[in-house]
Request: fold
Amino acid sequence: MPDKKKLAPKEPSTRVQKTIFTEDMKKDYTILVPDMLPIHFKLIIKIYEKYGYKMELLTNTSRNVIDEGLKNTHNDTCYPALIVIGQFMDALKSGKYDLDKVALIMSQTGGGCRASNYIHLIRKAVSSQFPQVPVISLNFSGLEKNPAFPMTPAIALRLIYAVLYGDMLMLLYNQCKPYEVVKGSTDRLLARWQHRMGKLFDTKTGYTHTKRIYKAMLRDFAALERTSEKKPKVGIVGEIYVKYSPLANNHLNEFLLEEGCEPNVPGLLDFVLYCASDPINDRLLYGIFDKSTVLYTIGYDILYKFQKQQIKVIEEHGVFQPPHDFEHLRKCADKYIHQGVKMGEGWLITAEMAALAETGTQNIICTQPFGCLPNHIVAKGSARVIKQAYPDANIVAIDYDPGATKVNQENRIKLMLANAKL
Reply:
């Protein structure tokens, strides 16, 4: 009788190699961070420096980033994943880093979007050429645990404050930069505050005095010499990575400033609250109730109180426009879409468009990344009903994908701005 093992040889394993970031790597390794939220991520990097980690925010933006993404990712992969992988691969091939002492980090939300799978796509691309490079998951949901890169309560608390202060600085920057009299003064003040926050995060509790810090930020930005002219406000909504990342949206914020507009970008805290509200909605919709539901409910209440405090301080100061109240965003969503629609950015995009139109930001750009099905449905699909509710709303969807040229994107935005409303 023939040997069955000889007739059916074992196939080679296709399992992607996972290189673990270990404790002894911590002191020598540089951890590369993808470019998504420059203001926020610089604060986060400062926080991790306190715990002995060396991080670097990537700023490589050449066409080679997209080319590397195309070469190392399936062509049906969503554009944000392609860009992140391309930026990592371009950096690793640049010759700038010691490949035996460099690691990569990627955040994971744990939601139904493919964003939670980016880290596996990154590992697949990296392991084929740089198997020694670890890829670290940064997440609050326990998707992956790494003893050398833990999510301790102390780190998590500082990260929450980084979101709060990052949102505040982004809001004040966008409301001052278009009107500055002394060119570059807003950028210099932003850099000073980022440096100051880095020092506060080094202290035990100095960074927790939010009210005092908010007031100091408001005072400093209000003191900038600004013109009194009126410029059209342009809201930016969409998939979280393309919405915020200068690399992914071809420096949309800077382009709007050059075109004489005031960008209005909803804060990252809205997305954090949106993620925290999902388990709460699941309980109402499906009767799901477990330990995580209780924790998310408590977390949501705490974060929402933080947001209410920030809004109140800005309103009392009286110079700048505060962010939207998240509970109000939920009410805006209920007019057009069910809160059970939670894949990707889900109902949040619709809610942000409605809230912007309601509060005087009639001009809205919806950033549409290639391959992001939830985004196209809840964003482009909701634009018509929002325009019906707010006839003055001037909404345009801009597609971002490997084949879209910056010229075509900017021409479409310029066409929208030709009808921009103050």
